[in-house]
Amino acid sequence: MEEKLQVMILDDEPIVGKRLKPALAKHGVDVEVFENSKKAVDRLREKCFDIVVTDFRMEEVDGIQVLEYIMGRSNRTKVIIITGYATVEVAREALVKGAFDVIAKPFKPDDLRSAINKAALSLGHDSILPL
User: Fold this and answer.
1) pLDDT grade for 6, boundaries at 50, 70 and 90
2) Could you tell me the sign of the dihedral formed by the alpha carbons of 107, 61, 27, 130, in that order?
3) Spatial strand order in the sheet of 6-10
4) What is the mean pLDDT of the chain?
5) Closest of 36, 35, 44, 33 to residue 9, by C-alpha
6) pLDDT value for 129
7) Is there a contact between 83 and 105 (Cβ–Cβ < 8 Å)?
8) Distance from CA of residue 106 to its chain's centroid?
9) Per CATH, the architecture of 6-121 is what?
10) How far apart are CA 24 and CA 18, in angstroms?
11) Pairing between β-strand 30-34 and β-strand 101-104 as defined by DSSP bridges
12) What's residue 130's pLDDT?
């Protein structure tokens, strides 16, 4: 049996994790939610996630720093950046540094589910979310 997809959601807005965790969990995904980026990085030291969804702008450690940390440890982990400050420059920087995708806020839950599904497929997992 295939292992469950391991997903971290990191966003300093609590509503993001509150909405996404149940939506993903009902499709058999193991989800850990963090609002504090330092705590999330501490967790990344302990566990390798398949997919990390991270906000771009946060206190202390921003999404690009999280991305760089992950890329320095695992080129297998797919990182999806979500941002309310979507510009071509932000997207380009994130993609050049290894992000799998960049999604502008506000986004529809289906947009993020689709990006997570594409990331899961690229890792060799079956389609886990209905498109």
Assistant:
1) very high
2) positive
3) 30-34, 6-10, 51-55, 78-83, 101-104
4) 90
5) 33
6) 59
7) yes
8) 15
9) 3-Layer(aba) Sandwich (3.40)
10) 11
11) unpaired
12) 57
Contact criterion met (CB below 8 Å) for 33 and 21: yes
pTM score, two decimals?
Answer: 0.92
| Per-residue confidence band for 2, with pLDDT thresholds at 50, 70 and 90 | low
Tokens of 18: 């509150």
The two tokens of residue 8 are: 């971290």
Give residue 7's identity as a one-letter amino acid code.
V
Question: Cα(24)–Cα(68) distance, rounded to whole angstroms?
Answer: 25
Write the DSSP string, the chain.
Answer: -PPPPEEEEE-SSHHHHHHHHHHHHTTT-EEEEES-HHHHHHHHHH---SEEEEESS-SSS-HHHHHHHHHHH-SSSEEEEEESS--HHHHHHHHHTT-SEEEESS--HHHHHHHHHHHHHHTTPPP-S--
* In the chain, domain spans: 6-121
Omega into 14 within 30° of 0, i.e. cis? no
| CB of 70 closer than 8 Å to CB of 91 | no
